[in-house]
Write a structure and sequence with these properties.
Endonuclease, Chain A, 6 helices, four-stranded mixed sheet, 4 strands
């Protein structure tokens, strides 16, 4: 049973934002501090990614664990089996599906997961890389590790996309590339 009245629950749920959330701010500050520049909520791209880094052809989605069902798997459901399957869905450590009105929440979270996958496939077809950062990976104990890993991934994407080539230096045995000695320079160029 819900401890709040329907009006209080409505007020609480209406106060939840979809833009400028705390996890999104953490990622934005971490990227800015590491020298990455981005655009916010690009309206022209599918799914309106939270952060868009054009230089890296990368879209970053900062997902809340509850709203996107982090580590929750939903079985294929048919209308006649819905009730039994919904009760059997396991919660994850960071996503707990409410017990009240459970059928609604399962369908909502499942649809959010499907939409996320569809949008990432559309972005990939357009040539964009997609990175998803989960709210639970931004806890203070592992935040720096997550942001460092994100910076490493972005740099790796840039190197892969721009075809960074490995240049090998000539070995000391190559005659053509050998530097002349000081005595040879003096005689060649009319030294003393």
């Amino acid at each position: 049973m819900d401890k709040l009245s329907p009006q209080q629950r409505y007020k609480n749920m209406a106060a939840i934002r979809s833009k400028n959330t705390k996890p999104e701010w953490i990622v934005r500050r971490g990227l800015w501090k590491r020298g990455f520049r981005y655009r916010l909520n690009a309206p022209r791209l599918p799914g309106h990614p939270d952060l868009v880094l054009r230089k890296y052809r990368t879209c970053i989605f900062v997902n809340g664990c509850f709203w996107h069902g982090h580590n929750v798997t939903f079985p294929e459901m048919k209308n006649d089996e819905i009730k039994t399957l919904i009760d059997g869905i396991e919660n994850s450590a960071c996503c707990k599906i409410p017990r009240t009105n459970r059928e609604f929440w399962v369908r909502k979270i499942q649809r959010n997961q499907e939409r996320d996958i569809e949008q990432q496939h559309r972005l990939a077809r357009l040539g964009w890389h997609c990175i998803t950062i989960w709210e639970c990976s931004l806890k203070p104990s592992i935040r720096e590790q997550t942001l460092t890993s994100l910076a490493y991934t972005l740099n790796h994407i840039w190197l892969e996309d721009h075809g960074a080539k490995v240049i090998s230096y000539p070995s000391s045995d190559d005659e053509e590339m050998r530097m002349p000695r000081a005595a040879e320079e003096e005689t060649e160029y009319g030294g003393i």
